[in-house]
């Protein structure tokens, strides 16, 4: 399911832009089935109403362990190629930490440090909802890449609600990107920082992500974060 993607091209896109799209990661049926979980009683550990925290407008729910099969498979299966890139990034940024090749081993480090709670989440937006620019840091252990899968169909299921990334460069003005996504596409992006090649070697830029206002309809997204939370 995941070996059909061109991981070399994905790494190049992440290196040059700070994000990459995995087209059609989930089928329309998988998108609908996953979005429908939002209304299930069980299977989640908490629900967050964004306006209550100043995070924006709309809401999300964090899955509980055990994760639904599709979420667990994506998290475990996408980790190894992303860990290889994360290790190159940490080397370039002068950060000592290296990531083990299997997700279970990385999670064991999170759990030993008291980061025990699962972070994959489902988000739901309606008209007027949006997600302020943020970084999903949940403790000292951070895996530097994450994924968001658009479960709804732009133009049909909703309008507005674009996925936005900003890149804050040292002593320079910030740059914004809008990531074009169709239903079932995933965007892989930097959680916190990424290395950028400059004329005098690599420097670090600070990344944030968010969602512009949804104008109509309903927008569901599956978020896959690889570190667990305190
Ligand atoms: O709704 C989105 O596209 C962004 C979701 C998000 O912030 C995340 O998955 O971390
Ligand atoms: Fe996020």
UniProtKB/TrEMBL annotation:
Q: Which Pfam families match?
A: Oxygenase-NA (PF09859)
The answer, when asked if Iron is one of the entry's keywords, is yes
Keyword set, alphabetical order = Iron, Metal-binding, Oxidoreductase
Q: Does the keyword Amino-acid biosynthesis apply?
A: no
- Domain Fe2OG dioxygenase, which positions? 116-229
Give the highest taxon in the source lineage.
Answer: Bacteria
A Gene Ontology molecular-function term?
metal ion binding
Name the family. Answer: Belongs to the iron/ascorbate-dependent oxidoreductase family.
Instruction: Provide the protein name.
Output: Fe2OG dioxygenase domain-containing protein
Q: Which organism is it from?
A: Sphingomonas kyeonggiensis
